[in-house]
Design a protein that fits this description.
Blueprint lengths: L2 E5 L3 H12 L3 E6 L19 E2 L3 H5 L6 H10 L2 H10 L4 E4 L3 E4 L4 H15 L2 E4 L3 E7 L2 E7 L4 E3 L2 E4 L14 H8 L8 E3 L3 E3 L11 E10 L5 E11 L3 E3 L1 H10 L7 E6 L6 H14 L18 H8 L12 H12 L1 E8 L7 E3 L20 E3 L13 H14 L4
Parallel strand pairs: 1-2, 1-10, 2-6, 10-19
Antiparallel strand pairs: 3-5, 4-5, 7-8, 8-9, 11-18, 12-15, 12-17, 13-14, 13-16, 14-15, 16-17
Length: about 400
């Protein structure tokens, strides 16, 4: 039996703690917040998208880099294992758009309670309001931890699962990255990821709260190089855009900093230009005696119509039957390619995940053990691993936590 000390009471830390304890080890979990799973409680807007259904290759295609590192962890603890685990603890799940898996209750609280029940029944010693200050290392071997109150806790294995930098209000302050650097680990540059984007155009504020479904986007550099393309749902904010396709796109946009990029929105991706033109022409025939501003309600959401009229530069009071062919073609082009200029992104306080972290080359994939310090392991967001929206990042946390808590002998 080994004494295992785990720093961080999020999904990775709790999974590691429960597995290690079930395997017969003396496990102590240290969490600086008053309760466990604080960040977990706000994931998926409080609904908690725990994982995603799909085969392993589909899953891997949604991980941004370092995918080979994750094969071992995902084989050990797959998306189906996650679903089965929560079912065992009374959390039924459902599959939604994009194969996203949520609890039937739509409550992240139920997910947290299941994990707390798991580690409690496993016999984990839970210590909240216990902030760790440092690691105790002798001759490149872990010996324990030092708490901020000066107390030293000896241990044979230490698992660092302190998260990244996203949502710092939940306790993710980057302390683990700082610690990893101090003991000789490489930490790749950390950037906010899955984060809303800021646009140059101020008219987006007129659309604040408007959700567009079944649209496609394309993001390009000014020279035309395509950075990212996607299909799905997006949302307008007072400063720019967000929503699933935008958040995933941000993983590719953030490295550009404030360099302007072009965002093209296809409002009708299921229709090619000619088909959409015929559709608009039919509407124009139906509403031929109406003002232009009253002829788009069957084609567009109500709140979007004034902006489209403004961008089309067609007189809103112009009778539809007087609109020229050139004006109609320009309108159709606008519907297929509404342009925004991205000039930045929001910060870590709004980022779902951190891109970057402890370099995977310095971690053993099967056990998450440090290749530099014997007995030290990492799990979760602290590692340089991240995926797109859809439950992939929580799966990374669960799988790396499981791997870190296993194989302790």
């Amino acid at each position: 039996m080994k004494k295992v000390l785990i720093i961080g009471g999020g999904p990775a830390g709790m999974m590691a703690a429960g597995v290690a304890s079930q395997n017969g080890h003396d496990v102590h979990l240290f969490e600086k917040n008053p309760r466990l799973g604080k960040k977990l409680g706000i994931t998926g807007k409080g609904r908690c998208n725990i994982t995603n259904q799909g085969n392993l290759e589909d899953f891997m295609s949604q991980i941004h880099g370092n995918t080979k590192f994750l094969y071992s962890a995902f084989y050990q603890w797959s998306p189906q294992d996650v679903v089965n685990f929560f079912m065992e603890y009374g959390v039924e799940t459902k599959i939604e758009r994009g194969n996203r898996i949520f609890p039937v209750s739509d409550r992240a609280y139920d997910v947290i309670q299941a994990m707390v029940q798991f580690i409690t029944q496993a016999g984990v010693h839970i210590r909240c309001k216990a902030e760790v200050n440092d690691l105790i290392i002798e001759n490149n071997q872990i010996k324990g931890i030092t708490l901020c109150d000066g107390h030293k806790e000896c241990g044979d294995i230490v698992i660092v699962a302190t998260g990244g930098l996203s949502y710092p209000g939940t306790g993710s302050t980057g302390w683990g990255h700082k610690l990893a650097r101090q003991i000789g680990h490489t930490v790749t540059p950390c950037l906010p990821s899955l984060v809303p984007l800021i646009t140059k155009e101020k008219w987006v504020s007129e659309l604040q709260g408007l959700s567009l479904k079944n649209i496609s986007i394309r993001i390009q550099e000014p020279d035309g190089k395509v950075i990212y393309e996607d299909f799905g749902e997006m949302l307008f904010t007072h400063y720019g855009v967000t929503g699933p396709v935008i958040l995933s796109a941000s993983r590719h946009v953030v490295p550009y900093g404030k360099k302007p990029l072009h965002l093209w929105i296809d409002l009708k991706p299921s229709l090619d230009f000619e088909t959409l033109d015929r559709r608009v022409l039919r509407d124009f025939e139906t509403f031929r005696m109406k003002d232009f501003r009253n002829a788009l309600h069957e084609l567009l959401p109500k709140t979007l119509i004034p902006v489209i009229i403004q961008l089309s530069k067609i007189d809103p009071n112009k009778k539809v039957h007087l609109i020229t062919r050139e004006e109609r073609k320009k309108l159709v082009y606008l519907l297929k390619a509404m342009k925004l200029t991205i000039v930045g992104h929001r910060g870590f306080d709004e980022a779902i995940i951190t891109a970057g972290g402890v370099a995977v080359e310095e971690i053993t994939p099967k056990t998450m053990e440090s290749k530099k310090i014997q007995g030290l392991r990492f799990a979760g967001e602290i590692i340089d691993l991240d995926g797109y929206t859809g439950g992939y990042n929580l799966q990374i946390a669960f799988s790396t936590g499981y791997a870190a808590g296993s194989h302790i002998s």
